[in-house]
Amino acid sequence: MNEKIQHIIQDIRRKKNAVNEVLNQEKQKVHQLEQEIVQLKSDNESKQSEISRLSKDNAELQSLLEETKNQIINSNVPETNRHEQIDELVREIEYCIGQLKNNA
């Protein structure tokens, strides 16, 4: 009977050691996953910071684009006025030429 008890005790120890090994492996996996989570959080914060910076840059570029667009639009108005002024000068010149022909 003593031998049978010793055999049962050894079997229990083997099972305990196997369970301890599995437990240690799982603890190691959990530790690795926790480290990965910390790294991913850090990466996420970096990416969020970069997104924020790029959003600000985008807003500045959009503003600059709008300002440039407005400048171009506003600069076209004087060009149109210049065409009108040129047309008016041509009419005046034609009128003066007509007056000269009539007086000659």
Characterise the protein shown here.
Keywords: Coiled coil. Residues 9-71 form a coiled coil. The chain is mostly helical. The protein has one domain. The chain has one helix at 2-103. The longest helix is centred in the middle third of the chain and has 102 residues, at 2-103. The protein is rod-shaped, with a radius of gyration of 44 Å. It starts with a helix and ends with a helix. The mean pLDDT is 88.
Brief summary of the model shown:
The protein has 104 residues and is an all-alpha fold. It has one helix at residues 2-103.
Residue share in helix = over 70%
What percentage of amino acids are in beta strands? under 5%
Counting structural domains, the number is 1
For the residues shown, what is the average pLDDT? 88
Number of strands: 0
- What pattern of helices and strands is seen along the backbone? H
Stretches with pLDDT under 50, minimum 5 residues: none
Number of helices: 1
What class do helices, strands and sheet pairing give? mainly alpha
Rounded to the nearest angstrom, the distance between the terminal CA atoms is 151 Å
Rg computed from alpha carbons, rounded to a whole number of angstroms: 44 Å
Shape from CA axes? rod-shaped
Please render the helix and strand layout as text.
Blueprint: H1 2-103
Tags for this model:
single chain; 104 residues; mainly alpha; coiled coil
